[in-house]
Amino acid sequence: MLLDKGHKLLRLKSSLRRHITIAEQGKSSICTFATSEEYDSLTTRGSTGKAEEFNMEIDTPTQLPMFNSAHTEQKLMPRAAPPTGILSMDDFMKQNQDEHQAQREARYATAGPPTRKPKTSENATPLTPVAVGARSSKHTILLHEKYQALGIPQPLFTYEGSSSSSWAARVSFPGLENVEELQGLSGDKGCNSKQEAKEALSEKALAVLEEMERQGRVKKVEKNRKKSVGGQLEQQQSLGEKEPVENYVGKLLEYQRATSGPQPTYNDYQSGTQFACLLTLEGHPHPFGTLTSLFSSKKAARQDAARHAVEHFKALGTWPQDTPIGGIKKKKKAQQPFPPPSSSSSPPSSSSVLSPIQPPFPNQTPTVIAIGTGTTSFAQRVATLAATLALPTPEWKYVSHPSDPNFHSVACFFRGAGPHEGPIGEVRNVFGKKKAKEECARLTLEYLLDVREKRRAYGARMMAGVESGESEDEFVDAEEGSLI
């Protein structure tokens, strides 16, 4: 029994020595001592005098070695000397500084100085406009006038292509299916725009149409052959609508048609984002317009070129004077729509025309007299008679038929004329715009003549009442509602 206890004590001592050695190697001398149940039993028994009391260490698990913090003050290891032949960056730069400076100077000597963007100044040379194309509608207009004169339907144009590549066009004449030459007629490819393709194809189609007319395969449609297609006249436009700006392009085109002159050609120029235009006319050596006046759109540039042409014709004295009826008219000799009134001593003849406020003699029967001469159109006669009746200038409202634009509906309006405001003389679906207006003007003239006769009759009755001594109240009651 004692031997077993001795062996156990030896094992404990050897374990204690092993822990002390490990603690010295890790520079740690922390150990934990405690009393075990076996040690308590041994010391209890040794207190009887058979064994000595011993302080023993408990065999605990081995702890990891404890190291000092990196922030604690420690002795630095001596720095090893650098290997032979290796330089630091600072030493290398100092040693090769002269060679590096020489390379920089050689590089800057061969390369030029950096270029700077020149600043624009007021003395800089302005940009010169570059021609971007020519625009002319000569053959398109001629083809339009040709098929209108023949009374055939409007030709149908179809386009192929895109703005990025080019445009091509084809045309067919509806109503002339028996003429194969006028069906699916194609033009040249490679046009820059639809308008250019249409102009080139119109020239070709016009030549074919004239040839078919000479051969007798295309004939003029009789005037009495009209389509009876229903249509409604649009309502009168609002009175507060603003009048458009002066259209010099339209005026010049109308002037050239009235004088049977050539159609103008507009040459467009572009400078940056702005445009200029020069107008050329056959028979005039110099173009109209200027390249120094630039505009934000081609349309405005063409209007300016047309304005120069209009001012040129006005300076020559060939431009017609404005008429109260509107539009461009050829110069005519001044005509008196009414013969001069006879002297007050002699009674007026049956052919004399009286003022609307001057009643005839009671025994005289009013006579309807045609206004103007036979060469005056119905529209001019309507304008003259309207001024005599103290009515405003007549306005003609046109509406084209949706299925065929060659047929028009027209009505006449007198703005602000009360019961005579309109519509008056309305006609529907008449072939040709000019023919429709003349027909409407003829009906309007009949209406105005009837108004004039009613006013004369009213004046005669009023004069008869004054001469017979009828009181004013009785006369008003008798004639109430008869004033037109």
Automatic annotation (TrEMBL):
Residues 96-107 have a biased composition (Basic and acidic residues). One of its GO terms (molecular function) is RNA binding. InterPro entries: dsRBD_dom. SUPFAM superfamilies: dsRNA-binding domain-like (SSF54768). The keyword RNA-binding applies. Residues 96-126, 214-241, 315-359 are annotated as: Disordered. Residues 247-315 form the DRBM domain. Residues 230-239, 343-356 have a biased composition (Low complexity). Keywords: RNA-binding. The keyword RNA-binding applies. This is DRBM domain-containing protein. It comes from Bipolaris oryzae ATCC 44560.
